[in-house]
Amino acid sequence: MVMNRLAENELMDTSGLGALERQVVDFFVDGVRVLGLPRSIGEIYGMLFISPDPLSLDDLVLRLGISKGSASQGLRALKRLGAVREASVGEERRTYFEPAVELKRLVGGFIREQIRPHLESGKAKIGRLEAAVRSEADPERKKFLTERLARIEQWMRSGGRVLPVLQKLLGA
Amino acid sequence: MVMNRLAENELMDTSGLGALERQVVDFFVDGVRVLGLPRSIGEIYGMLFISPDPLSLDDLVLRLGISKGSASQGLRALKRLGAVREASVGEERRTYFEPAVELKRLVGGFIREQIRPHLESGKAKIGRLEAAVRSEADPERKKFLTERLARIEQWMRSGGRVLPVLQKLLGA
DNA sequence: CGGATTGTTCAATTATGTTTGAACAATCCG
DNA sequence: CGGATTGTTCAAACATAATTGAACAATCCG
Question: Which domain holds residue A148?
């Protein structure tokens, strides 16, 4: 028995959502965009955030009017970020999701998945730069480059000091 | 007398740069990408960062192989971010630029130009949401929404506490 | 088994953001 | 003035990233 049909009077697009739902979803769409994440991720998280009950992939597809592909990928990304968890709902086969709402967790996941990797590869690049500068012939130029490199390293140290403090502050 | 011709043996693309220059420029290209800024901005800042002398718009066009339009817009953005300053070079007509290298200044500019505006508009949206929730009919739903809204407001407060500390830490 | 359900993958499409380049304004100076 | 220089603007071209949708795997269950 196929039940996945929209009721006759429902629209295909997101106007299926009430004004309030739309507002919340938009709020998170903007939020994730600032973080450089795709719109669909904001929509999904927003939808979960505003739903009193956990939602399934199909619920999200239906309510947001996005494709199954988007929903699947979006949910995966959100899981990796630790921003959603699977909610065990009775003995159902399909899995339901609910949002993680603890700021510490959200920020932690973002740092782990989005910031750290860039810091790592940044450090690697700096390493190679140091090597290149050391084998610079012109002493005038070498001196200048060494200075600048030291500056970047100073930035990195400051940055390293910041992250822990940040995590601590957000726990409170 | 037209002098803007490349020497016969120079390539049009950025291989005009030495390996080291290229490395540094790429480093900043990656850096600004993480911040959600366009590649050309990273190239320009990187080029200035590695140059012992201030550079003009035309210098950047020539060395990076980007268009005048990109250079002009990129420099404007960097000025607004406080990431470059105009360097007064003798009595020349054209203006020369040098990078700002103090982390505090760079981060401050970024927060001012990219973070604050979003926080503002975010707060405005929350305001409208509060209004919408207050006029929610169903009491059960109203209770739930109020809880969630309180959660967002808690996030905002934590965030507000963070920025000043961050700026302080980066001064050091 | 075999059809129904749930979810994933990925090439093609679509949307978004960036860069270009030519036209234009502004200033300089012979 | 008038031609040369310096820089800006913005529509069109281009590049990049996100989304779709159809094909596919995996699991369930009658």
Answer: 103-171
